[in-house]
Write a structure and sequence with these properties.
Helices cover 15% and strands 40% of the residues. With 182 residues, the chain is mainly beta.
Length: 182
């Protein structure tokens, strides 16, 4: 009987008795040598460390924890890691922690993997508070997508929250809200 390729780590929202989450930390590197490369011959190698991401799968059951312990996280690894001439992201570490354990530094915005029906989805919710980087008129940003192999994504959506509510990134009202605040 073949195994389900997304086996082992399912987010089970509102599951009674669930006490753990999976936290994955990555490293992102950029090859500055690729910026001037003309595509002929070997790409110059001048890699710089540029940060990374924190990914979280919440609400793990004991069964899922045991499967992760036995098999690791191959499907999530395939969805997160990639490498090409210009950049790469790879997993530094992953661990299963209590639900109330910190996921990273307070200035970080984790990316949450959620199991929806027959596939993984990702959600990144950024508040524009003390450590924010967006214009002050933007109160928050919500991004959603379907992760694909080698860190590709499909169905990307992005919304911004301003004083008058949430607006899609392409909504003309968002531009009007920001223009009127300037």
């Amino acid at each position: 009987m073949p195994r389900n390729p997304v086996y082992y780590v399912h987010s089970l929202a509102n599951k009674v008795g669930v006490m753990s989450k999976l936290v994955i930390h990555t490293q992102y590197k950029e090859n500055y040598g690729a910026h001037d490369w003309d595509g002929v011959g070997e790409c110059p190698q001048y890699w710089k460390f540029k940060g990374g991401n924190t990914y979280v799968v919440r609400d793990l059951s004991t069964q899922h924890i045991n499967k992760i312990a036995e098999h690791g996280i191959p499907t999530l690894t395939d969805l997160i890691e990639y490498a090409h001439e210009g950049s790469m992201e790879y997993i530094l570490e992953w661990e299963i922690v209590d639900d109330n354990a910190p996921e990273g530094e307070e200035w970080e915005t984790p990316i949450e993997f959620q199991w929806r029906g027959d596939r993984w989805t990702c959600l990144k919710f950024t508040t524009n508070g003390e450590f924010g980087y967006m214009r002050q008129e933007i109160l928050a940003k919500s991004e959603q997508w379907i992760p694909l192999s080698q860190s590709e994504r499909s169905d990307y959506q992005c919304q911004y929250k301003v004083a008058n509510g949430w607006f899609d990134q392409n909504d003309p009202q968002l531009k009007a809200e920001l223009d009127s605040a300037a």
